[in-house]
Write the structure tokens for this entry.
Amino acid sequence: MTCEIIQKERSGVINPIFTCQPAGAQYASIGIKDCIGIVHGGQGCVMFVRLLFSQHFKDNFLLASSSVHEDGAVFGALNRVEEAVDVLLMRYPDVKVVPIITTCSTEVIGDDVDGVILKLNNGLLKEKYAGREVHLIAVHTPSFVGSQVSGYDVAVDAFVRHFARKDQPNGKLNLITGWVNPGDVTALKHLLDEMQVDATVLFEIESFDSPILPDKSGESHGSTTIADLTGTADALATIALNKYEGGKAAKYLEDEFGIPAVIGPTPIGIRNTDTFLQNVKKLTGKPIPQSLVRERGVAIDALADLVHMFLADKKVAIYGHPDLVIGLAEFCIDLEMQPVLLLLGDDNTTYKNDPRIQALQNNVEFGMEIVLNADLMELESRIKNKEVELDLILGHSKGRFTAIDNNIPMVRVGFPTYDRAGLYRHPTVGYAGAIRLAEEIANTLFTDMEYKRNKEWILSVW
Ligand code: SF4
């Protein structure tokens, strides 16, 4: 059997898997404290992205728009940036970090965002906001290349480049989580706490699972500070969990400041979590404690209850962010499932050279197809044309109608997942994530067995 990597043949995209680059930059920026990004483009470039964030987290996030109109699209719209920065700083006296996030329109008209930042630094900020700490940072995210995935990577890199400064070694580990959920951050912090490792979790979004407090202070905003970002150059090492969502910044810190970088693997499943802990051990010298050995044992026990009896040989399609899809595919294989179709949804031509993809190519013992530059129509048409028989779909909520229309059970994972309650609160990574994911998969298959009256009696004697 073979694993084939193919490019989507059809031109155009029908039901895209991702939205565009500026969305990723906006996600990175809401992970920083005292930061409000200005998206330099039409209002929709913010409005629809904020809507996705709100749908996924059921909370509100602060993002601004330079609100470019027809005249700006023709004659240039840098005056809108100048106005937007001034209004934002007046309206929000605590804001210190203002990324100017470009879009397709403002990149096409060639607005010199770096130039206007220089002008504002030497003009408005000195004259009207003298004595106030304000960082204006250009984040170039034209939407006609890449996707929200590369947009996140570009923004993380821009923030780290802007702030990182060498001072005294701080003995901390930089952790770039990539585009994760609050439940993942909690799970990662737990692993690091158990190992007694002092880490700076960058673009830290645990507080997106925010409370409603009596004094109404429970707003959702990230908690990475300017000091955290500045101190990245003094760290012991950097671990970027996702190659395509933070890998660039980890590499920059290594090249520029000699901070050793470990990029990946995404700690989904037992073996990748093991590797993550081994990497932490190697970089910090801290041993893996007995408590985590026990947690691992609990996870293996939970998986052993499910694998052979219910999960083995189940055929799965997976779509979403590349690191997530690869991590999930590896986990599915460990669960004896068959991830027969992987859909990677943007124009990044380097995916095929990813060693994890090459390992899948070399090792799978069933027919697998990895489609690059894919969209959800690829999934839909393969199902309709009976090119693939699926027992399960793993992906975000945008594929829900493919699952519903074709009567295929689906487990929601990734971003955005707005049609199931509270998923952002639960981890996908770590041993806790492995248990949750495997049980969610099993329970979804059980419900399907009952609904379709397909050997549902087994569940009575299990
Ligand atoms: S594709 Fe362009 S216009 Fe549309 S949301 Fe993205 S940046 Fe804005």
